[in-house]
Amino acid sequence: MQETYVAGTVLDIPQDLASAVEHVREHPGPVEITLGADRPVGLHMGSMVRRQAGDQLRKAGADPLILRVPVSVDEDMPDEGVIAEADAALVLAHGVGAQALVLALGGVTHRGRQRQRLYSMVAALAEAASAQDVRLLMQNHTIVDEVVMLLVLLDREFDQDTLDVTEPEVTSLAWDVSRSRGAGQSDADAWGFVQRAAKRAPVLVRGLEPGETRHLAQALPGFEEAMANGRVVTVEHCSGSH
Q: How many other C-beta atoms lie within 10 A of the C-beta of residue 22?
């Protein structure tokens, strides 16, 4: 039986745009690129260069093109600093033409940020993502439940017309499998939450070593079907890339 899923690629090592384009050309499909001055895409790029970089990556076969901001909500800096960095990354993602930006969450009490503070930061970034027409993918720090809780709160505020976004699907989940496993959550338990989130909006599955997409597709009921339907997108690290 022919497999109906294709795992994408994580590009998170220092390299220039030409090297990234060549890799994408050899491995077309979903691509997640970590932002940075020594990466294929970064905040140092001007508006024209951003657009050209996005065009080159997409023409090489990056579909969808996803960016990852190297800052998390639990960074040891003021709330305003985290929001400013993530907001700048959203502007960059829009300029590149990326479909989504991955932002890692911390635990709900990390760095002294209680649940309400964390939610307020995410809500502000959801509104910024909506303004840039970029999907904000919130990555779990530990178990996936922490992100699902925030999505529920965001949807509630959207329904009450107190969240300024065009649609609730502007926010979604990036399931980092390595982190949920590290927190003691089994893949099956995590998938129960992820599968429900995927019915709400497409989700990204990351934190995978080469070949693990096939394992998940074989082990988790409905995973392969969700990939075939575009509700789940997976990206794996390249061998020797981290």
A: 13
Q: Which tokens in the block code for residue 118?
A: 């964390």
Long-range contacts for 78-81 (Cβ within 8 Å, ≥24 apart)?
79/113, 79/117, 79/120, 79/121
Instruction: Give how far Cα 122 sits from Cα of 36, 69, 125, 148, 225, Å.
Output: 22, 14, 5, 13, 30
Predicted model pTM: 0.92
DSSP 138-206: EEPSSSTHHHHHHHHHHHHHHHTT-S--S-GGGEEEEEEHHHHHHTT--HHHHHHHHHHHHHHS-EEEE
Per-residue pLDDT of the chain in tens (242 residues, 90 and over written 9): 345 667 999 999 999 999 999 999 999 999 999 999 999 999 999 999 999 999 999 999 999 999 999 887 766 667 788 889 999 999 999 999 999 999 988 654 544 456 777 788 899 999 999 999 999 999 998 999 989 989 999 999 999 999 999 999 999 999 999 999 999 999 999 999 999 999 999 999 999 999 999 999 999 999 999 999 999 999 999 754 43
- 2 token code pair: 């022919």
CB 7 within 8 A of CB 208: yes
